[in-house]
Write a structure and sequence with these properties.
The complex is a heterodimer. Chain A is mainly α. Chain A contains five helices and no strands. The chains are: A mainly alpha, B alpha/beta.
């Protein structure tokens, strides 16, 4: 799966969780931040973790990856960083 | 989204890891299972099957108008764990009081208990909400990191405000907190860890519980009420050691 495909999968998951209005400022790009731009709630982040696990399988340990980060790093997290992480988990 | 009906309430549940079971409960108003899911939950999941859920009225669980007292919330917990063998129980703040209540009622079902920052007497939980228990006042009393996130934004602020308004105006939550009786933990026979912040207004309550619960160990960590954020690494280490038993 290419990074573009990973990005569009993440976007589809976010729309499922938060509705179309999550795209109100335009399509999601690698520079989009989950907190500052999308303003995702922490409980929506849990839903994202679950959906990513369903789409990408156990190999993508999103929760384990997040849990090693400090709170300020989680708050600053961008879609691009998540794409890179998922890409690095794939064979 | 895994939703199960427990004690008549549609409840959002998540699990991580495998091993002996641990159930984690969160605090009121701004708490949700995310409080643990992105902090101690994944760390404990290295050795345990960790079950986290949104208390009624919180996160993605349904929001009934009543039942925010620890007796009702402990019945929710009972229903959510009915199929589990004996398990460990970890609770933050009001969730810690729920865990204590459950352990007192069902000591045979709880292997080890960890109470983080539970307010004693329980009605002092109101003080944690700040001097102004209107929705706007509650937003002002958020921990710095969350308040900054809310202040910077529109969507998060709107959604958090909607949750707070719904809980404060449309449910008995505040009345339930004010009328919650003080627990008598002297009869507790479950190995118990108590973790409190050195800057938390709840610390005196931790000392009260430590004096009541036979053999309980009180650990004072650097931080305030939201210890899973303020002292995450140290709290995780303590919890993991305690649950390793």
């Amino acid at each position: 799966m290419s990074t573009d495909e990973i990005l569009s999968t993440i976007q589809a998951c976010l729309v499922e969780i938060a509705g179309d209005e999550i795209l109100i400022a335009g399509p999601i790009t690698p520079a989009t931040s989950f907190n500052g731009d999308l303003e995702l709630e922490s409980i929506e982040f849990v839903a994202l973790a679950e959906k990513l696990q369903q789409r990408f399988g156990q190999r993508v340990d999103f929760v384990g990856w997040i849990s090693k980060k400090e709170l300020d790093q989680i708050i600053a997290l961008t879609v691009g960083e998540l794409v890179e992480f998922i890409a690095s988990c794939r064979p | 989204m895994p939703t199960v009906t427990a004690n008549g309430v549609a409840t959002h549940v998540q699990e991580l890891g495998a091993g002996s079971p641990v159930v984690m409960t969160h605090g009121l108003i701004i708490g949700s299972l995310a409080s643990w899911y992105f902090t101690a939950g994944p760390e404990l999941a290295r050795e345990h099957r960790v079950r986290m859920y949104d208390l009624r009225g919180h996160g993605r669980s349904a929001r009934p108008a009543t039942g925010y007292d620890t007796a009702t919330l402990a019945r929710d917990l009972d229903a959510l764990t009915a199929e589990l063998p004996q398990f460990d129980l970890v609770g933050h703040s009001w969730g810690g009081l729920v865990a204590l209540r459950f352990a007192l009622a069902h000591p045979e079902r709880v292997r080890r208990l960890a109470i983080v920052e539970a307010p004693i007497p329980p009605s002092t939980a109101i003080d944690l909400l700040g001097p102004d228990v209107t929705p706007e006042g509650l937003i002002g009393a958020l921990p710095d990191s969350l308040r900054a996130a809310v202040a910077s934004g529109r969507r998060q602020a709107e959604r958090l405000l909607a949750t707070v308004v719904a809980l404060v105006r449309d449910t008995t939550l505040l009345a339930d907190v004010r009328s919650e009786p003080e627990p008598d933990a002297r009869e507790l026979r479950v190995p118990t860890l108590l973790a409190y912040g050195d800057r938390s207004s709840c610390l005196a309550g931790g000392r009260t519980l430590a004096a009541q619960i036979p053999g309980a160990s009180l650990h004072v960590l650097p931080g305030g009420h939201y210890l899973h954020l303020d002292a995450k690494a140290e709290l995780v280490r303590l919890l993991a050691e305690h649950l390793r038993g």
